Backbone:
């Protein structure tokens, strides 16, 4: 009962490109993959600059955003799992989204 979430689509926003190029690449790559998990880096000013417009553009193209949040006891199950990759130290999981998932209704 542990969800594994990986990034399906990138926008190369970690590169030295401007906000318009981040948006162009994100829209192109999301369209080519028909949705999925779009990875963006919150350490880049140009990503923050384009985020609102990017979300609007994706919604206008029929994509939607869903929230992924850990269920009750998820942290303890992850630590206790055989071959766990995380240690027995306290694991704090909150109800914040793990990642925005972009999907297109069919």
Residues:
């Amino acid at each position: 009962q542990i969800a594994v979430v990986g990034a399906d689509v990138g926008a190369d926003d970690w590169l030295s490109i401007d906000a318009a190029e981040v948006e162009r690449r994100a829209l192109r790559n999301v369209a080519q993959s028909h949705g999925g998990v779009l990875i963006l880096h919150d350490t880049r000013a140009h990503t923050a600059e384009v985020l609102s417009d990017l979300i609007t553009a994706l919604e206008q193209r029929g994509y939607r955003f869903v929230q992924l949040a850990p269920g009750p006891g998820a942290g303890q199950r992850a630590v206790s799992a055989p071959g766990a990759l995380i240690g027995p130290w306290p694991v704090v999981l909150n109800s914040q989204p793990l990642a925005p998932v972009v999907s297109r209704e069919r």
